[in-house]
Structure formats: structure tokens, C-alpha cells
Design a protein that fits this description.
- This protein is an alpha+beta fold.
- The protein folds into two domains: about 30-100; about 105-168, 2-Layer Sandwich (Gyrase A, domain 2).
- About 60% of the residues lie in helices and about 20% in strands.
- The protein has two helices and four strands, in the order αββαββ.
- Strands 1-2-4-3 form a four-stranded antiparallel sheet, with helices on one face.
- β1 (about 105-110) and β2 form a beta hairpin.
- It is rod-shaped.
């Protein structure tokens, strides 16, 4: 057969189909690149998360160490304050005790320990010691022991051992 018009070549895809295929291809490329971007971001966040977990673990260890140091320092502070208070009380007690020693009595040696006081000295008569100093010592200490030794000049050398029960 013969035609008066020349046959046109028919395209494999129509113009509308080509446009849709380009659009679908572009969307697929965008979806793949977005998926790849999400995978990369997920990997980065996972690595950062591991680093942060390690940092958190290290910081928790540091917190525990610092807490232990703070507790130790607080315990030292309590002990130091107790020592300061004890020293102040002891100082005041010794000062008061030394102010109460009558003029006729002469102390030659004083030794202070944690719960004890040792006094060595000279008194003209036992009664002066017993009436004026011993009463003060008995009011402070739980046990008081005194030994007298007579000297050649008539005076008495004494040694007084005084102790208190330890307070808890």
C-alpha cells in the first residue's frame, strides 16, 4: 500500500511518559540521597553517643572521687573543729586551774595528757594543799591521788595525779 503522507517515526516513550519518568527518577535520586544522608547522620550520632557515654562514665567516676574527697574533708573538718574546741576548753581549764593555785603552793612541774593532769610542787603544809587546791581538782577530775614527801626544811613535796573518765 501506498500512502500520500510519509510515516512518522513513533517514539518509544511519549512526551508525557518521558516527563513522568524523569520526575520519578529525580524523586528516587532524592530519596536515595536523603536515605544516605540519614545513614551517615545516624552513624555520626552513634559514634558521638558512644563518646558521650564514655565521658559520662568518666564524669561519674570523677563525681564519686570528688564526693569521697568531700566526705574525707568534712570528716577532717569535724575532727579539726573537735580538736579546736577541746584545746580551747583545755586551755581555759588549765588557765582557771592555775589561777586557783594558792600563793603558798609552788608548782615545779605540770604535765597534761588527754584525760590526766600531773602536778608536782611544794607546799608549806598539807592542809593548805588539801583545803585550797584539792577541792578544785576534785570538782574537775573523777579521781585524784596525792602523795606527800616531807622535805628537810619542813615543807612538803607533793605529786598529784588527776584523771577524768573519757567522754564518748
Amino acid at each position: 500500500m501506498y500512502s500520500f503522507t510519509k510515516a512518522k517515526e513513533k517514539p518509544f516513550f511519549a512526551e508525557d511518559t518521558k516527563l513522568w519518568l524523569i520526575f520519578i527518577g529525580a524523586v528516587m535520586v532524592l530519596m536515595l540521597s536523603f536515605t544516605l544522608l540519614l545513614l551517615i547522620k545516624s552513624y555520626i550520632y552513634h559514634k558521638n553517643s558512644e563518646k558521650l557515654q564514655i565521658e559520662i562514665s568518666e564524669n561519674n567516676k570523677k563525681i564519686i572521687e570528688l564526693t569521697n574527697k568531700i566526705n574525707f574533708i568534712n570528716e577532717e573538718k569535724i575532727i579539726t573543729n573537735k580538736i579546736i574546741v577541746d584545746n580551747t576548753l583545755l586551755k581555759d581549764s588549765v588557765k582557771t586551774l592555775l589561777n586557783q593555785i594558792p600563793d603558798p603552793i609552788t608548782l615545779t612541774y605540770v604535765k597534761i595528757e588527754k584525760n590526766s593532769l600531773y602536778l608536782y610542787g611544794i607546799t608549806p603544809r598539807k592542809e593548805i594543799y588539801n583545803n585550797q587546791l584539792l577541792q578544785s581538782l576534785k570538782s574537775i577530775f573523777t579521781t585524784t591521788t596525792t602523795n606527800f614527801y616531807q622535805m628537810d626544811n619542813g615543807y612538803y613535796r607533793f605529786e598529784s595525779i588527776n584523771s577524768a573518765k573519757e567522754l564518748q
